[in-house]
Amino acid sequence: SILFEEFGKVLVIEPYLSSVVLSGMILDNSNFKNRIELIESITSGTQQLSVAYIESNQNFDHSLPATTAVSDGENLIICGTKSLVLNGGNADQIIASVMLDGEFALVLIDKENTGYACQAYPTVDGQTCADITFNSVSISNKSIIARGEEAVSLLENAIHLATLCICAESIGCMTACYLKTVEYTKGREQFGQPISNFQVLQHRMVDMFIHTELCKSLLFKAMLEFDSNADTKNQSVSALKFQIGISGKFVSQQAIQLHGGMGVSNEMLIGHYLKKIVAIDALFGNGNHHLNNYS
User: Fold this and answer.
1) Distances (CA, A) of 21 to 55, 195, 294
2) How confident is the model at residue 211 (pLDDT cuts 50, 70, 90)?
3) Beta strands in 111-184 (DSSP E)
4) Which of 50, 180, 192, 249 could form a cystine bridge with 91, CB 3.0-4.6 A?
5) What is the reported pTM?
6) Last residue of a domain, one of 147, 179, 214
7) Of 147, 166, 196, which closes a domain?
8) A single Pfam family, by name (predicted)?
9) So what's the pLDDT on residue 294?
């Protein structure tokens, strides 16, 4: 969380989340034969990986993908389309969720395979996603990372860890918004004095600080429960993600309000923090989804 909080403060756009957190978490906890070589290639920077699990009309339920894997001798034929693949346009290999013989499975697919088509596009926060189509892509059956309950557990735990990471990143954005706003109001003068002297603005900045610290407390609780594999870990992650959505928008919007028109200019970071926070709110389930999970 310390690393991602710092990422948020300076708006890092490198694909650490997709390659290291999501892909690395799945590989590291699997029994996949080539996992060590793949993890080494990720850490050395020679390869980028991503996880393709989102499909249209799923409504945050990723347990029954429409993408299929059909046995063909010693190979598998993959057919289907994945959406919103983080850093998918730059990924050398993709960990994709499929239905194999009626059960959930995770398979590794190389971008050089025939029938692999990728359409990349930028996102509002400066990163990239891709829609990837598998048109009868043939892979070896040795590319199966996991199947059944093991595959479901691997994907769920990776998404929960990634959710904790982006929540920490959002807290970094909120912290930067708060500190930069305090600094700006101390230097901006109106009626012969810094606007930071006005009590009503001080109250707003205190509220920004309180929202940030509230999210930090929820983050620590969720991290401890996730690390100890507590029964309530999923609820804690959902509670954190829900609050991040509320507090992140409040803090970033207040920062823009106190900066005035300067806050939405490309030359200042404040508007970019808002874009990042909005993107984080939608990633891995929005507030309504996590509120339903918690209840």
Assistant:
1) 20, 42, 24
2) very high
3) 116-122, 128-140, 144-147
4) 50
5) 0.93
6) 147
7) 147
8) Acyl-CoA_dh_1
9) 80
Of 135 and 265, the one with more pLDDT: 135
Expressed as residue numbers, the domain containing 258 is 152-294
CA distances from 274 to 121, 142, 215, 248, 260 (A): 20, 44, 16, 8, 14
Spatial CB neighbours of 207, under 8 Å, sequence gap ≥ 6: 250, 254
User: To the nearest whole percent, how much of the chain has pLDDT over 90?
Assistant: 84
- Residue 136 shares a structural domain with residue 272: no
Which among 248, 219, 215, 249 has a CA at the least distance from the CA of 236?
Answer: 219
Query: 92 with 79, same domain?
Result: yes
Whole-Å CA distances, 28 to 46, 60, 87, 120, 146: 18, 24, 20, 27, 12
pLDDT, mean over the chain:
93
| Widest CA span in the chain | 81
As given in the structure block, the two tokens for residue 80 are 């289907």
User: Structural domain tally of the chain?
Assistant: 2
pLDDT at residue 191 greater than cutoff 90: no
| 85 and 35 together in one domain | yes
Do 70 and 117 sit in the same domain of this protein? yes
Clarify whether residues 8 and 120 are in a common domain. yes
Residues 21, 105, 158: CA angle, nearest 5 degrees: 20
Residue 43 has pLDDT above 90, yes or no: yes
Tokens of 50: 């991503």
| 52 band by pLDDT with thresholds 50, 70 and 90 | very high
CA 104/CA 147 separation, integer angstroms: 6
Residue 208 has pLDDT above 90, yes or no: yes
Residues 34, 66: one domain? yes
Per-residue model confidence (pLDDT) at position 59: 79
Both 141 and 6 in a single domain? yes
